[in-house]
Structures are given as structure tokens and as C-alpha cells.
Amino acid sequence: MADGRGGVSDGRARSRARVAAVAGASVGATTLVGTAAGSLAGAAYFARKVLTPDRRRPDDVVIRAADGRSVTLETNAETVVPGRYGLWTDEGHGHCRIGEVLELDAAAGLVRRELLGVDAGSLGPGPARWNGYYYGAAPDVSLGLPMKYVTYEGELGAMPAWVVAPEGGPGERWAVLVHGRGARREEAVRALPPLLAQGWTCLVPSYRNDEGVPGGDDGRYALGLSEWRDIDAAIAYAVGRGARDVLLGGWSMGGAIALQLLDRSERAGLVSRVVLDGPVVDWGDVLAHHARQHHVPRPVGSLARTMMRQRWGHRLVGVHEGVDLALTDWVRRADELRHRVLLIHSADDEFVPFGPSLALAHARPDLVTFEEWRVARHCKEWNTDPQRWERLVGDFAAG
Q1: Would you put residue 269 in left (φ > 0), alpha (ψ -120 to 50) or beta?
Q2: How far apart are CA 150 and CA 112, in angstroms?
């Protein structure tokens, strides 16, 4: 009996064990599938955030008081940094320029800054939007410079641009100035005085996915891997009007666009020098930085980069062309650089870490002149020390 009951008991025990094992495996598989699906969704979301133009320009500053000499703002990471900046007011219809910090009350969360001028609209308490470009309009309005509003024929159609010539009119030396991701052409206005002083005609073009400009079939950024073709078309426009020597300038992603153009364009031989300000020298490093800032797990960030590149991920990310970040790594590709570069980058850049810029300069000291800034946030080196910035750019443009 005992042997008989023991045998039945052991059989039931083994059966229950098998059921438990199958159930455990099912739960584990469901968890694994759920985790994988969550990682895929997270990676797709992260990739789309990087590649999708953001049309929203929300107010991000609060004006608490204003008089004829100063503006009092609530403090945030931007409003307490030394230098010159702008404020868009009246939902973008107004603009003023502000200067150095006059008084900081950390306990109250308030900072009072110089008021350098009201360019448009009214200035009073209420919401506003920080303007890191300092100037808030085209060169004719911001600097009182004679200029032309032109269009050039890009791959996707007509692209608007500004042309500002030095005294004496356009010559053979043209500077083509490329703004950053999600930025506006006003970003380049700061660079015009030192370039015009050295005789360069300045062309400030737009490129795909700018406001009011064709965005291509997918409406996504390619981080320089397709945008360079629009800037190449802008150079063709300049060549058609007498340009024989080109200075190429770029801020942030504009730097990444410039580097791709130098690598891919048949017109790269016309470029004699390059000025890069806070450039993206390696998009992989930038994405890793933002993944850490937003607590995105490393495997999810890595998967996002794979999805951008691999055909299977294109639909999930929303791109028609693959975005291979390896092609944007100019530290790894340093031996391929062929142009003289003035590279300006702040060690305190919170958006595009300056490590790759420094590494590129170390890899190619024969071509790259590196100028390190401190304190300045992303692409705001001019703001904190305009005299130094304009001297460096003017000297480089004169050579």
C-alpha cells in the first residue's frame, strides 16, 4: 500500500511541478515580451523626439517687473547667466534685448537685468520666451543693414534666404551660415558684423523642416545626413552670383550639416575655411547625453539608435531614409577632415557636450583651432563675450 500510495503521490507531485514550471515559464515569457515591447516603444519614442521638428515655441520665462532701465525676471537656468540675450514678448510679436545681471535675489527667485532696448511690442509683467540669439529679427531690422530677401532652388523646392553684402557690394567671397536644429535664421545675425568687416557677402539660408519650408516626405530631421543637400544648393546659388571662395559656418546641428557637406558635396573644394559654434561633432554622444539626462536606460537608447539606422525600424521611427549616426562621428572620422576649422565650444554647454569637439581638435591640430569658453550655455559663447567671439571670427575670416 505504502509503495502504491507513494508512487501515486510522487506522480502527482511531478505533475504539479510540471504545471508550475510551465506556468512560471509562461509568466516569465509574458514579462519578457512585455519588457521587450516596452523597450521597443520607449526606443521609438526617444528616436522620434530626436528626429521630429517641434513646432511649439512656448513661453519659458516670467517677467515680474520692467522699467526703462531694467527687467526683473523669475530665475531659471538661463536667466541668471551673464551676457546679452533677448526676450520675445506678446506671444512672439514683441521683442526686447537685455544685458548683464544687476541684482540677483536667490531667496526670492528673482533676477534684475539691464534693459538694452525694446525692438517691438510692449514690455510689462507676464510670460515671455528666452531668445539666446539676442537679435530677434532679420539683419535689416536688427542691425539696420541693407539686405535682400531671396530664394534659392533646393531639392524640395524654393528655399528662403537672406543676403547681406559688405560695402562695395557682393564679391567673390561668400559666407554661408547654417543655424541649428529647431533654431531660426536669426541665430546667425550675431556673426554678420565681423564677416562683413572682412569683405564676406553673407548668405543665411533655410533648410528642410524650418518653419514655412518644405519638410520632405517624412517631415523628420536627418541630423545633417540629408539637410546638407539644401545648404549645397545655397552654395550653388552663391556660385551663380560670383562666389569663388566660401566660408561655411554652423551652430549646433548646423555644424553637423556643414561637416556632412564637406564630406559629400562636389562643391566642398570651394570652401576655404569653416567656423563651428557649439557643433554636433558626434550625434551618438549627444543622444547618449540626453538619454542619461532623461533617465533612459542604456539599452533603450542603443535600440533607438539602431532603429534610426536599420530598415526594420524606419516605420516605427517615422523616417524614409536611414539615419546612421556612425556617419556623424567626426572624432572617429577625424582623418577624413580636409578643411581649416575654427571650433568654438563652451565647457558648460548643457545640450551638446564639448568633449567630442575637444577630441576632434586633439586629433587634428593641423586643421582645427579650438577655442574653449566657460559659463556660456549652448551656442551662447557670443552672448557671454561678444568682443572675443568677433575678434576670433574676424581674424579667422581675414586669413
Answers
A1: alpha
A2: 40
Tens-place pLDDT, residues 144-182: 999 999 999 999 999 999 999 999 899 999 999 999 999
Q: Which class in CATH covers the domain with range 139-282+329-398?
A: alpha beta
> What is the phi/psi pair of residue 202, to 5°?
-105, 125
pLDDT per position as a tens digit, 132-146: 999 999 999 999 999
* pTM for this entry: 0.90
Neighbours of 269 (CB within 10 A): 11
d(Cα 112, Cα 98) in Å, to the nearest integer?
10
Strand order in the sheet with 201-205: 148-154, 157-164, 201-205, 173-178, 245-251, 271-277, 340-346, 368-373
Burial of 268 (0-12, 13-18, 19+ CB in 10 A): middle
Distance of alpha carbon 374 from alpha carbon 384, whole angstroms: 9
- What stretches of the chain show up as alpha helix (H) in DSSP? 2-51, 139-142, 192-197, 228-239, 253-264, 283-293, 298-309, 311-317, 355-363, 381-384, 386-398
- pLDDT category at 365 given cuts 50, 70, 90 is very high
What amino acid is encoded at 105 in this protein?
D
